Amino acid sequence: MAPNSHRSDLPHKKALTLEAFAKRVGFASATVSYVLNGKAAKMKIAAATVEKIQTAAKRCGFRPNAIARSLRRQRSDTIGVITGSLDLSWTQRIIDGMQPVLDKAGLTAFIAIHRWNEAYEQRELRHLLERQVDAIITQPLPTNGPFYSQLIEANDAPLLLLGDSLPEWPQFNAVSWDSGPAAEAVVSHLIARGSQRIAFLGAQYATVMTQARYLGYCRQLEKAGMAVDRRYVKWQPSGAPARPALEDLLKVKPAPDAIFVMNDALALQTLEFFSEIGLRVPEQIAVASMGDLPFSGTGLINLTTAREPCEELGAAAAEGIIELLQNPTASCNRLITCVDLKLRNSTRSSP
């Protein structure tokens, strides 16, 4: 091939149309369409006819034109899913929960990321709608609340929010985890083990998750009669390593004797940093988190963490968006409650 050749210069084989395929197999176009779109039983088409059409379709590799079909039905059978990052096991577990439900309904998910950036999320929402997805599920950013309202008013595609729960957004369709009680359980465990100076390390993302877990931390300290000392609250800048925030935290006097980390990914960085500087966990400082991601129960120091019901959230979100597609006037507000604390070596000494 010459260096300047392009694939567009190559001859293209013309796609076989439904009408041409129907003529080839000797049946009406409507009959072929019913068979290949899974409606043979409903239309009471003979089994022998179904077998003949399906065999011929497999032999010549014929499939109905999805774009043309979607135009006729005013449906694309696609769902947009926007998440903060593809780097996190959280996203994989959410998708694992969604996929079987979407597959059963004949729906395909298009994945996009907003990297916890307000403008990025708005852009991805617009792009997905331009691509005619039937509905959108997004991991919400609190600052985009007004934009969600505008989007819902201007478009027919249902929008469903997915993540931790905050009571300020009752007007939106949402599937959420009430993570506040789980955050409180983590802090309660640290208090019960005798910790007096409990720090909080959060990611500086403008997400519902960040707010919900921090508020749970504050509530439990207040319930125990312990003031929230702002010196012990540190925020890791978006995308930055946790080390600078942890170094600042350890400069506080007296030093914290426990730390509640917002999620397992940050907690792993925390454990690695403490190991590097020779700070003994949990003897000198206990570490607890939220998530229970696959790596959390492995390693020399197993992480105490509250399990996040990711697969359940994903499945419930898929079920909710299907309900909204079937009944556009319906609403979906599902709150999943789960407090499942995994006690491991990062908050207790090995026996």
What percent strand?
15-25%
Q: Biggest β-sheet, characterized?
A: 6 strands, parallel
Q: Estimate percent helicity.
A: 40-55%
At CATH's second level, what is the architecture of the largest domain?
3-Layer(aba) Sandwich
Mean pLDDT: 86
Given the helix and strand composition, which structural class is it?
alpha/beta
Number of DSSP E strands = 12
How far apart, in Å, are the first and last alpha carbons? 69 Å
Q: Whole-number radius of gyration?
A: 26 Å
Question: What is the CATH topology of the largest domain?
Answer: Rossmann fold
Order of helices and strands: HHHHEHEHEHEEHEHEHEHEEHEE
Unreliable spans: 1-13
Query: In the residues, how many domains can be counted?
Result: 3
Shape by Cα distribution: elongated
Strand order of the largest sheet: 2-1-3-4-5-11
The CATH superfamily of the largest domain appears as Response regulator
* CATH class value of the largest domain: Alpha Beta
How many DSSP helices? Answer: 12
